[in-house]
Amino acid sequence: MVKPLIIVRLALFIILSGGSVAQTPIDQMRDLLDRGFYNSAAQLNGPTLIELYPQEPEAHYLYAFALYLTGNMSAARTEIDKALALTGQDTPSRYLHLNGLLQANEGDTENALQSLENAFLQDSSYRYAMDWARLAWQAGMYQEALQAYHEAANTELGQREPWPYLNRGRLFLFLGSYDEAIAAFTMAIEVFDANDPGNTRPSPAYVEAYYRLGEIYERLEDSEQAKNYYQAARSTDPTYAPAIEALNRLTVKDTSNP
Q1: pTM confidence score
Q2: How far is it, in rounded angstroms, from Cα 108 to Cα 17?
């Protein structure tokens, strides 16, 4: 016999999911997460899902993901461990990815990087590569971060996104590798131009790429090139404060050194 509490939860489950009865509870949980109803998924739907499917790894994964998204890391760890135990050796990449994010939160950087890399190698997901790269950079594993951003740029989505190149440029700039940084920032601009959806405001990555090129040329004491790139950043986004400040600084410098 189905418990009355589960019946009530299922009714709310269907209401929150748009009233569809054709979807399974697992599909409905995915839909809630896709639509951003994280608290409902974590507090109401997740417990119901586990009661209905205690031996289904996907139920535990989805509940773990909802808990992670709402900041309940310890409970998310409990659920992802159950999901991993139930899958055995054929672990889906999304489980590896979430496990890696939790390991990073727990301070287990080495295993977190391995989990995120394995998730990417299994799925070639842009998001997995970007998370892998971000964690590697935070951990001071700069070459690994550069490689992960390179992998992200070569994914289907990454070929249309300037962010992997911008982040490679940021990291090269941090490392003082100016030639590589210039190439990366230039690629960020080219990728955006090739895939510009025509929005009123361009991608922040596009604006920053111009600014960072100006920053490099200013460091190289090429004021004219620096001003050209700063001006390009400002023209692209007239409110971009770093470019405005840089142009003002160079103007004052030129005035004081005729």
Answers
A1: 0.86
A2: 36
The CATH architecture to which 158-258 belongs is Alpha Horseshoe (1.25)
Q: Pick from 209, 208, 251, 255: which is nearest to 227 by CA?
A: 251
Is residue 200 pLDDT above 70, yes or no?
A: no
Spatial distance between the Cα atoms of 192 and 183, rounded to a whole number of angstroms: 14
Three-class secondary structure of residue 196 per DSSP: coil
Q: Which residues make Cβ contacts (< 8 Å) with residue 114, sequence separation at least 6?
A: 100
Cβ-Cβ contacts under 8 Å for 146 (sequence gap 6 or more)? 133, 168, 171, 172
Are 18 and 34 within 8 A, CB to CB?
no
SS3 string, 49-72, reads HHHHCCCCHHHHHHHHHHHHHCCC
251: pLDDT confidence band, cut at 50, 70 and 90?
confident
Query: Which residue pairs from 122-130 have beta carbons closer than 8 angstroms and sit at least 24 positions apart in sequence?
Result: 122/93, 122/96, 123/93, 123/94, 124/151, 124/155, 125/93, 125/97, 125/155, 126/152, 126/155, 126/156, 126/157, 126/158, 126/161, 127/97, 128/93, 128/97, 129/155, 129/158, 129/164, 130/163, 130/164
Main-chain phi, psi angles of 198, to 5 degrees: 80, 25
Q: Which of 27-31, 160-164, 226-230, 251-255 has the lowest mean pLDDT?
A: 251-255
